[in-house]
Amino acid sequence: MFQSMILDRMKNTFFGELKSWNFSIYAQWLGILSIFLCIILGIVNLFHITLVVLFSALTIVEGVLLVFIELPFLARICPVSQKFQTFTNTFASNYYRGLIYAIFAVVTFLGCIFSVTSLIAAGVVLGLTGICYTFAGIKGQAFTSSSTLGGTGQGNNDAPAGMV
């Protein structure tokens, strides 16, 4: 019964966030999908003989960086340097997050020069995430982390003052 209550709460929160029209929340969910795709498809494509291996390794690194950007509470759990923490905090605004996702998408798509692989799926989702973050910035929506993922949810702002 307790598990059912938790699942119902998560489901209601998730669907409520989807109805919010807050593009930073959509982008955060796409970002989580990007993390999984980057790491999984990066590992799968490591077995190519062409230079796709280099882009597979870069995609894995992108996925790990995105873990710390999208889930900043992990930086408190995992031992990271202050310099790395400062680097990930740079991406507190929608525009900077959109930029980093666009850069990662371009890098991932560059692997297609050598061979078209499943990394294209990671590139597409990275690009869509970047578009959602950029659109949230254009609409003036403050960065809002999903309450389903442990954030503050709709109506609250996780970004430092002055950052949109």
UniProtKB/TrEMBL annotation:
GO terms for cellular component: Golgi membrane. It is a multi-pass membrane protein. Keywords: Golgi apparatus, Membrane, Transmembrane, Transmembrane helix. One of its GO terms (biological process) is vesicle-mediated transport. It is found in: Golgi apparatus membrane. The chain crosses the membrane at residues 21-43, 49-74, 95-114, 120-138. Its main location: Golgi. Belongs to the TVP18 family. Golgi membrane protein involved in vesicular trafficking. PANTHER family: CALCIUM CHANNEL FLOWER HOMOLOG. This is Membrane protein.
